[in-house]
Design goal:
This protein is of the alpha+beta class and 147 residues long. The protein contains 4 helices and 5 strands, in the order βαββαβααβ. The strands form 2 sheets. It has a 3-stranded mixed sheet with strand order 2-4-5, covered by helices on one side. Strands 1-3 form a two-stranded antiparallel ribbon.
């Protein structure tokens, strides 16, 4: 019988690139709600490459978020993350979608922008800063309400 004690899940994360960590292993009090893992986004369906509601980022970004989370906690607030590392397959999904006629989420997510202008106005790009692992979309929430 083999018993493993005292190992965090980070010990088993051999599939992450060097320098990347799962945010929960650095600070599990940060709320993660990856919008591209759900249909609650500008495309209206789960995005290719988002296989779980797990946030991984560079270790430096995770440590910075942990520091901010600790500072916010003094005031009853916290961080909620909507997007972090984004694989190129996801970026490619955005690009493909931007070139089709699907506008079902326009009224909710981009009512004042013409879909044909999403590239020109910088909303979508064929290469994303998120793919480097330190670009994070987040908000500040009230820890009591989660809002």
């Amino acid at each position: 019988m083999i018993i493993l004690l005292g190992f965090s899940s980070a010990f088993f994360n051999n599939n992450l690139e060097d320098g990347f960590v799962y945010l929960k292993d650095i600070d599990d009090s940060i709320v993660v709600d990856l919008k591209y893992y759900s249909s609650n986004n500008f495309i209206g369906k789960k995005i290719n490459g988002y296989n779980a509601n797990k946030c991984f980022v560079t270790k430096a970004a995770a440590l910075a978020l942990k520091h901010v989370q600790a500072d916010l906690a003094h005031f009853g607030y916290g961080i909620k993350i909507f997007d972090a590392y984004r694989p190129q397959t996801s970026v490619d999904h955005f690009v493909k979608w931007a070139r089709n006629n699907d506008r079902k989420m326009k009224k909710i997510h981009y009512p004042d922008v013409k879909k044909r202008n999403l590239f020109k106005e910088g909303y979508i790009a064929s290469k994303s800063g998120h793919s480097r692992g330190s670009t994070i979309d987040l908000t500040i929430i009230d820890k009591k309400t989660g809002i």
